[in-house]
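#lab-general

N.A. 3:47 PM
ok so I finally got the sequence cleaned up, no stray characters, all 146 residues accounted for. can someone with queue access submit it? mine expired

B.Y. 3:52 PM
send it over

N.A. 3:53 PM
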Amino acid sequence: MTSLAEMTGLEQLRLFAGIDTSTIPNIGGLLGMKIELIDEGRVSFALTTRPDFANPMGNVHGGICATLLDSVMGCAVHTTLGPGESYATLELKVNYTGNVTTDGQRLTATGEIIHVGGRVATAEGRVVDERGRLVAHGTTTCIVNR
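B.Y. 4:20 PM
back already:
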């Protein structure tokens, strides 16, 4: 069996997609993220809103969309890594375009690579609600450790 250190980032994410991670502490499990797509340079995750995502005004807290975006954009970068390589988010920019209710709405986030260089990678992402309405979008800059 190949170890994680010997696998590419794309192979690692596809492996994780096939494993029941509900018992492993992680942000995706905490928020109930479901993997929709893992492809080279493109990743989609979805979640369903719930009352404990609320901000003081009763809508979904902006941190939920920010976390979705950070996850899909970072994982888009992850798909481009070679064996033994890693990355970390250096910068995250999020724009909100609408509020989201906490009553079980499905949000889908997609992240795509813009550029992968020797040490820096950039990606962009979008979050849409179940009607396809854009609710947030963003960009990230990641440092790649080769």
